[in-house]
Amino acid sequence: MSLFQLLNGLTFAALLFVVASGFTLIFGLLRIVNLAHGALYLFGGYIGFTIATKIGSFTLGIVGAMAAVAVMGFALNEGLLRFVRGFELRQVLLSLGVAFVLNDMSLVIWGGDSFTVPIPEELTGGFRVFGTFYPKYRLFVLLMGVLIFIGLWVLINKTRLGALIRAGVDDAEMVEAAGINIQRVFLMTFLLGSALAGMGGVMGGAFLSLYPSADSEILVFSLAIVIIGGRGSLIGVGVGSLMVGLLNTLGQVMFPELAYFVIFGPMAAILAFRPMGLFGKAV
Amino acid sequence: MSGVSRSKSPMGALVVLAILAVGVIAPFFLSRYQIGLATQILIFGMLAMSIDILVGFTGRTSLGHGAIFGASTYVVLYCVTQSGLSPYLAVLLGIATATVLAAIFALLAVRTNGVYFLLLTLALGMIVWGICLRWTQVTGGENGLRGDIRPKALSDYKDFYWFILALAALVTFGIRRFVQSPFGLTLRGIRDSDSRMRSLGYNVPLHLFIGFTMSGFFAGVAGAFYAFFNNFVSPSTVALTQSVESLLMAIIGGVGTLYGSFIGASALIALQNLVSSHTERWQSVLGITFTLIMIFAPEGIVGKFRALREKYANKH
Fold first, then answer.
1. Which end of chain B is more exposed for a tag (fewer CB within 10 A), N or C?
2. Is B122 at the interface with chain A, CB within 8 A?
3. Domain spans of chain B?
């Protein structure tokens, strides 16, 4: 694998990390597998695309998409999921129904064409990295991925909210018994996770482009990452994203038509030996 | 979730016979289009019933059965249109492929339960979809495979309907026997408590493996004959929508009822036809239906009806 492909794999992994970290945060704490996460990614991308083309600011596009998708997450959590609290399977299936509606709505609003979010001028062009010419924008995605990893790590390990989230992952009832409004922590996590999906949508929309089935593709990658990394573990998402991102790129080089199949391998191997994922805790 | 009661009463048998009789004479009163719909309902009813083996009797919700079903359809169409095999041989190969695919899914899935099982089957099904979409040389990519493959003996649409009706009756009988067998009872034991079954000395993963593979076999039967019905297959046949629609059919009918699958299939296919004649937003309607069912009637129409009847009976 050449350096160019390695960087492709790493930048893809960084994008996957942004999307999947939101997914696993919600899964880990709220025990909600939000299958609408892919649709939120796609919506975020489309909203970012609209803002970036109409107003001409990529940054505003990201901020706008994060805010809009967080609002959608809020509506989903407070408007629908509250009716099925405590029923794991019903929650998952409900979020799947919502994903179908959102996907269809995006088709109504933006049509079936594929769009690419315009990249700001400062990030166009490329760098020379160890003798290989590489697009600046993709390096920016890699940097963002690393920054978000650090940010989330600090949030979870060094702040009060993070402590509550960690405690909630282990035993939500005990946290509530200690006099903490766990529902608010849940809501914050849901909003944060959704906003990350929206951000991922704009970032990915600029180099993978946006099209009607992009949501299910990113969802499968997120699922694979959570299965590999384990529920609710930040390190797990990091390692899972790296594995899936690099393997997918390797697969595209070696057997372009069956690239999808390559992520199946590690998933199968990990399930065989560690059904809870590499960093997951048994419930 | 109650299992199918072992109704040995002559009444139950009479009802089944009466429904079958109605099914047999129906083509004399229906239009060609309606017979086509009835055939479709029977095929998807079989698929929904195969899912019910897992959802209703094993307590495992699968979102990968659309892929197993569609893989069978793909193999049948590929064998007949590209390799020139006889349709009958192709059907056998299709069912065999679906069974093997289900066995591979099962090998991984038996290690998980609850929501992980659902995620894993979802991911595996999506991988099959991704391969069907991208492997253009074999699957035809987005265009799919097309060809008039139905054998001559079944070319008349009424004959084909009767054939599928007989097949559905046979499959229903087979699945009923399967879930009521001592083996089916162990599956129900696993549904209710797999730790208890394990401590009783049952090999839980092996039972789950066999249950999943059998369920995939029946999904494969439905998929193979769907190829005869549709004469066309594209990635949408193996897509998540397919798995979701058939799971929804099983849920609407009421999980653990088997026969309910045909009610669910009728309801959903009728709704789909109604919606499609007015708008192109079937996917939204499907999503909304799914969401509403999850909130208001997760036990399905048959289950809801039973619950209401019990409530009524308790009042008096």
1. C
2. yes
3. 16-249+258-278, 282-316
